[in-house]
Structure formats: structure tokens, C-alpha cells
Amino acid sequence: MEERSKLSVEAEQSDKATILIVVGRVDGSSVGILESAVQEQIDAGHKTLIFDFQDLSYISSAGLRALLIAARLTQKEGGKALFCALADHIAEIFEISGFNEILDIRATRTDALGAL
Amino acid sequence: MGKPPTQVLVVDDEEDLELLVRQKFRRRIREGDLKFLFAHNGKEALEVLEQNPEVYLVLSDINMPVMDGLTLLGQLADSEQDVQAVIVSAYGDMKNIRIAMNRGAFDFLTKPIDFNDLETTIEKGIKHVQALQIALETRDRLVALNQELEMAREVQMSIQPKALTANEHHDVKAVIIPAKEVGGDLYDFFFIDESRLGLVIADVSGKGVPAALFTTVTRALLRADVSRDYSSPSDCLTLVNDLLCESNPSCIFITLFFGVLDLRTGELSYSNAGHNPPRILKTDSKVEVVPKTGNLVLGIQPGHTYHNKQIELRPGDTLFLYTDGITEAEDSKSEEFTESRLDEKLAELAGTSSERVATEIVDAVQEFVGEAPQSDDITCVAARFLAPLPVPS
């Protein structure tokens, strides 16, 4: 049960997008929580997602893969996925892996909402 | 095609139980749904069971000559066969019923036997036995699957070279401590021609069989491309990436560093597809980060162009490649090993052999982790440039 508590994903609706607040660690054992949170929004017809990573402490390659899939899913539905408020060490993971080139990353949630 | 009949063995020294069963279940016997076998004491029952391993349910009386029902139960409990037993006893004979249940009987019936009770009990017994069968088959499949996974892991490990024979020009050593699950990390090294040495380290997203397959395919593609027509690390990665992207619906990706060390000059030409930047351990204990080439992981963006960079290794310098299984190894307090611990430990190992560098780093990681479970492969390659190969004049 400890596995579950290390990651939580909360959804907040705004008029332009659904904000997913990701808190904790995304790794191989917790990535399912993030995947189902994304799927839930897509199923509910919410196709524009903003991931707020302010309290994301760690993301593994399995987590990056889930973000990539989220970006592709939303795109397929005619929406998009944005990612904001990355801490320095998270930004570094995005930079090393090159994901900053293919995902839409914004400094703050306000920036992300403004970009829609 | 129906499934074979469920077989039930009836054990009683008197004829009445046999007659009752034959009469009561005649329709289902005729339809091939049930098949009954009969024995007249415990000893006979064991012989019948030995010859009919498909019997999983036994209905047995208690008082019988030669071997009684309770002794039979004890023997069944000790045998390898998974047989469930229903015991038949006189009404009110709680003592024997208790003994029977304690010896593992599944249920009991009392005499005089009630038809409906008999049918319900046999029905229940059959269902129970069938559920057990399914559980056993599932367990067997799981065991087989685990064996196959174990073999897959052995194959995966065996195709990776352990070390190159060192000579006065180079010294290469790899260490991999795989996590429990198959998948994960990859390293490779090979000579492209007599003077250029290819060095690879990679880490696939996720674990398990899909990850392992992706890793193996990546290695094969890279090797094939290099042996066919090598021009530069970035050209190789651009091609391998396009091939991987062609059929990757599940968005698996792999981070990969590919460096080529020219042993004539010490020049390292490399391209880095999203992998943790390797280190150069200088003879004076300085640890330098190999500059990024700013490239994306392999497998998700077709048409991506990978770039090359060059750095120079001086004689005695060691190129150190690693995966995040090292820097992100966690101790029991969830503290990570981190790059700074890695760099610190590397600095202590300046001027030593690749064997020492690789093994001591891994030792340091394992010591740091202590009793905490290993969640990721721990992989590193140390490649030391010793002295330039003579250039033919």
C-alpha cells in the first residue's frame, strides 16, 4: 500500500483544460496511477491536459513513456498535453532524455493556460 | 468434443454404496460426464489410484477389512497424488468423522445415505476438485513461464561481452548486476576495424519481456549497421532510430550512448541519444562530464537527426559509461546514490585498471544500497585508453 501512497494525481477542471496535479514519484511501480488518471480524463472527453509537476519529486523512464503516450492520446483526440512547473532536477531529466524537444513544456501553470 | 469424464473412486466393502451410485448417476455415467471406479478396501483403493492418476475424488467408507478408510486417508495425505476424499460413516459417529476431517477429508456423508445429500456432496466435491485442477494448471504454467523468463535473461546476459582482452593500448571491462526482472540495461563493445573500438551503453524504458526484446533488437540493429557500413556514431543512431520507430506502437524507448574510440589518436567520437552523460576519469583524478549532443531517446521520433561530438582521451584516461541504476540506486531510507557520489568515488580510482574502476564503483553502489531491494539493473563499462596504436607510415 506504500506503493500507492508515493504518488497521487489530482484533477482540477478549468474552462480551457484539465489540470493534473502530480505529487510524488512516478516510477515503474506507480506509473499505473498516472496512466489511469490520464485515461479517465480522455474517456470523460477532456482532451486538453496540463500536467502540473510542481510537486513531482522523481520520474523514471517508465514515467516519461506514460507522458509520451498521454501527449499522443490527447493529440489523437484533437487536443494537447502541456507540462509545467518542473523542478530543476526534473527539468534535467527532460533535457538529458531530449523529451524537452518533443513535449510542450511551460514554466508555470499560468503560462500553460495562456498558451492555449 | 466434450471433455473427458470426471472420475470418482468409490471405496466400500459392501455392495450397497456401489449400487446406489450406479443407479443414482446412471444418466450422467451414460452421457460420459461422470465415471465411477470401485474398490473394496483401502489397499485396493490405493492400487486403483495408482493405475488411474486421473481420479481426483474418492468416496470412502470407514470400516473395511485389510485397510480401513482412516488409514487410507492418512496414506492419501502422504502421497503425491492430489486426491480429495469424502468419508462415509455411521450417523452420530462424530469421533471418526473428526479424525477423518483432521486427516484431510474434504467432506463426509452419514449412513444411511440420503440420495440428495450424496448427489450434492459429490457435485460439490467435483467442483472443488475442478477448481483445484485449474489452480494447479495455472501454477504449472506460471512455473514454466518463470523458467522461460529465466532463460530469456540468461540469453540476454550471455550475448553481452564481459571484457576485451586488454593489451598495451586499451583496457575495457563491464559489470552488470541485473535486477530480478528481465529487461533493462544493455552494454556492448566491439572493434569496428583494427584501430577503432565501439562502446555502447543503453537503458530501455520499463522492464519485462517487451523491454528485453526491444533491447535485443536495438543491439542487433546497431551491430548490423556498424558492420555493414560504418561512417559515424550519429549516422548509426539516426538509422537505428528510424528502424526502431517503424514498429513501436507501445512507445517503448531506449536511451543509448554510442562512442567510437580511435586507438591511434585517443579521439572519442560519440553521439548520445538521451542517455546519462558518461564521465572521463583523468589520470590526475579530475572527473569530466562528456558533453551532451542534445539528442532524443531512440524509438519515438522518426526522422530525428542525431549529432556527433568529439573529445580527446589522453593516455591513461578512462571513459566511464553507466546507467541510472547506479546514480538512482536507493538505500533503505530512499536516498539516492547520486552523480556526486559517483564522481567522488571515480576520482579515488584515477590511474587504476578498468577492472578496478568498474568493480569498485559497483561495490560502492551495493554497499550504499545495503539491504534495500535492487529495483533496477546496475550497469557500467570502463574503457581505458593506454597508449596510441602506431600509425602506419
Question: What would your notes on this structure say?
Answer:
The complex is a heterodimer of chains A (116) and B (393). With 116 residues, chain A is α/β, with parallel strands linked by helices. Chain A has a single domain (2-114), classed as STAS domain (Transcription Regulator spoIIAA). Chain A has helices at residues 2-5, 31-43, 61-76, 88-97, 99-102, 109-114; strands at 7-13, 18-26, 48-52, 56-59, 80-84, 104-106. In chain A, strands 1, 2, 3, 4, 5 and 6 form a 6-stranded mixed beta sheet that branches. In chain A, helix 2 (31-43) runs parallel beside helix 3. The mean pLDDT of chain A is 92. Chain B has 393 residues and is α/β, with parallel strands linked by helices. Chain B has 2 domains: 6-148, 3-Layer(aba) Sandwich (Rossmann fold), CATH 3.40.50; 159-385, Phosphatase 2c, domain 1, CATH 3.60.40.10. Helix content of chain B is 39%, strand content 25%. In chain B, strands 2-1-3-4-5 form a 5-stranded parallel beta sheet, with helices on both faces. In chain B, a hairpin with a 4-residue loop joins strand 9 (254-262) and strand 10. The chains are: A alpha/beta (116), B alpha/beta (393).
